[in-house]
Specification:
alpha+beta, 2 domains, 3-stranded antiparallel β-sheet, 11 strands
Amino acid sequence: MYSTCLFCNRSLGHNEVIEAFPVGRRIAFDPTKGRLWVICRKCERWNLSPLEERWEAFEECERRFRGTRIRMSTDQIGLARLAEGLELVRIGEPLRPEFAAWRYGDQFGRRRRRAILVTGGIMAAMAGLTIGASVVGIGTGGLWGFWNAAINLPVRARLRTKDGRVLKLRHNHLRSARLYQDPEGGWIASVKVRRVEQFTGPEAERAAGVLLPAMNRMAGSHKAVQAAVAAIENAGHPEAFLTSVRASLPRSDLAARDAKKRARLQTLPTETRLAMEMALHEEQERRALAGELIELELAWRAAEEVADIADNMFVPAEHQAFIDRHRLQTRDNPDSPDDKTH
């Protein structure tokens, strides 16, 4: 098993994920044709692995690719990033897209528990102040002022504007946040901090991606998360869900009082806000991966021509039968045990 690039002689690195093939930080595999490459991160060339080193690695690569939480596929090529840092490039028919919403359950739950602890601490302090105030004769008006200050003082989120300013958003600012349907397509987001700040197009999505986590800090119960997941799965795809939500929002060119009320993010159902946060996050990751897929597909086509020649050169008939058998097995059932018969 080689450990350096065949083209630039730089180290290919190593991984601790694919036990049968610990070489490389980006591995490409084609379960249908039985190819496995290590992509050099220095020169980006594809190093075809020897035939005898591929078979056990195929099943682990396929299993890991299917199980990863971050993956993106086109018609010919897919890219997945594992938590351990290894990147897998899968060649061939794309897998059915799956929304990996299960990963949000723990994240939202932890956030909700932290918010409850903070709120509980404030309420305990208020209870103590109430008892103390009753002793010294302080009215409820002063206590109400303290409560408002305690709620509105912390900065819940920071949002950067196009001109480089950073808006520090507090509780009362979040209550003013609105999301509209742009008559020309896309979103329009607004929030009032001294004055109304407006964001359009991709900037509106970015703004919503900042506003929603701050607004959803208390909304991570198991029931709410499951309802949010179901909403996205019923839509079929995160992007489809966002499109349906956008269509339900009032248009920005309607200035009626009712339109402004319906545009407030706070008035949306909890499950909808959670699902929007999930879907926007998924779309951001999808776009980040999509740019790399174009370059990967071009590089794969060039590497495939070389691999086709190398794999079929001087291959005895019995070896070809072995290859074909493992190709079918890996493609049809990636979780099945290795076929060791020759």
